[in-house]
Amino acid sequence: MEKIPVFLSSDDNFAPYTAVTMASILMHTKEFIEFYILDCGISSKNKRKIEKEKDFFKNFSVEFINVDTNKYFKNLPQTENLSKAMYARFLIPELKQNIDRAIYSDVDAVFTGDIKELWEENLDNKPLGAVPSQRGRFNNNYYDYKKKLNLSESHKVFMSGLLVLDCKKLREENFSEKLLKTAILREEFDQEIFNIVFENNYKELNVKYCVMYKIFDKYYTKEKIEDIVKNQIIVHFPGGGECKPWNNPNLKSAEYFYNALKYTHFKNDVKKVQKEFKRLLKGGNTMLQNIFSVRNIDNHTSKMVTLFGIKFKFKKTATKKDIENLQNEFEKEKDELQNEINTLYNIIRSCVGYDLTKYPKAQGKLRELHIANGYMLSIFDKVCRKNNLSYWLDFGTLLGSVRHKGFIPWDDDLDVGMLREDYEKIRNGLYKEFEKYNFVFNQGVQFGNQILRFEYKGSPAQIDIFPYEKYYKKINSDEKNILKNKINECYEKFFQKYPVEKLRDGEISFPVDDLLKMEKETVMENNPEKVDAAVFQGCEFFVYHPHIYDNEDIFPLKKGEFEGFEFYIPNNPDSYLKKIYGEYLNLPPKIAQHYNIKQKIKQFPEISTSVKELQSLNSQAGKDYEII
User: Fold this and answer.
1) Phi and psi for 420 in degrees, rounded to 5?
2) 3-class state of residue 93 by DSSP
3) Sign of torsion, CA 262 263 266 268?
4) Does position 543 have pLDDT exceeding 90, yes or no?
5) Is it the case that residue 246 has pLDDT exceeding 60?
6) How many CA atoms lie within 13 A of 58 on its CB side?
7) Reduced to 3 states, what is the DSSP secondary structure of residue 587?
8) What is the pLDDT of residue 291?
9) CA neighbor of 232 nearest in space, from 134, 115, 128
10) Residue 224 phi/psi, 5° resolution?
11) Does the N-terminal peptide bond of residue 127 adopt cis geometry, omega within 30 degrees of 0?
């Protein structure tokens, strides 16, 4: 039987979850586990309860190692959900000089497989092994993060919640001191410090060692999810509040936590935590705390001020500049916050016998923008029809047409879809036809998706055009999943080669020909039947879950009402919208977050002038193209 050293770090609040992580490891292995708990303030009572794991398992030992957080981490940052215990892992190689290799795990993780598999991972002479962040899976999307931390573009950002440590090598190269010095110098959290110190110098571990159900639906296809779940070894619960299984027993994958909780003496403690969390959710004080609160942090040397959900941190001995900075930050946010408050008020006012299709139209500048956009779309429609271009209302614009006969009250721009052939005609020169009506053409610079955009000169009115491809092979539901995987492969291949941030910021020009070549090679191969079978979003439209539509969902196009006009919409808008939004007639769960005029309306105070101009131009377009 092999002995495996496992380090966990905890203060008293996290003691119950430390026991759960221990139990989950012991449930799934026959090896002897030497637990070393980095004690950042665990009470004697909770230590005894942790030691009583012996009532359930015999194949382990436990040693508590006192870590003085004030001594080592006095000036390092922390948050409400992240205590200074997170930094204790910096010290592991030095705390037990006789251990040459060890595993570290956060205590908001549970094991669902044998830890021996992780223990036997070959580190290839690297000082540590870690799992690359799954949020960085597509598009090199840690570009801004790496720029902020001064990390190289080639570095894959990794998570610090699960580490396999070559303690001997870490001691030889004095990494504990490097981590502490870097933390003091940079004032970043532990994960950022690890990525700075071990930049391009770690062994990548498989995602099965840090499975996060929370992000499945955003980052993986159904087929990939099934594969990950089948092979998972460790499930992690990142985030706070309802993202933690001890607060939310209905959380996806929480059953793994509760299966392990049975083999601890903390069941009643977790019940109390759940009860208190429910009380806070139901009580009015939670809303008040989200609106305004002040609390001490960093050993009472700083305060965290929360204003309408926005957190500001400053030292108690705040200078005049600190106060000015705080005021400036709040000024930037308060108008958007007022919009959210107004929206919540409208929702409450409309709740009795609520019918979302009767939700009141926007008011003020936002309503003026809706009217301006309506005329702009009417001009777009006329130019398209004159030049034999097909289009259809898409995304929120289509949803607005079906649900509100116009704009969603909290939306602010226009979305249309267009097949690749017509889309390329606009990009390759036909955009000049639209410029006659003061349309400003934009190929995606400053916009992450790199799709085509028309803006009306001197106005926030705009139309985004999304490219779609026809797939000519009849496919069943299983083959649709295969097609999704091919599209994802193309997305990943293209945006790894051309990071979206560089495209968005204009650092590199959008390589359309290269994209279409990759799309043809990766997605369109073995596609010989040449029948109208399916339609999918072009690969420059960067999404994690590509929508695949049956040809009959979209074609033949038909007319739908929008802001007093008729425009083209998909043949089966109900099926189309359900594939994007699910039950689209239900109230969005976070409606206030969508009610956002952005800052652009502030930049264009005279929207009413644009309304009049566009109304006149729409009449002119009708005469130009003899369309009434």
Assistant:
1) -50, -45
2) helix
3) positive
4) no
5) yes
6) 1
7) coil
8) 40
9) 115
10) -65, -40
11) no
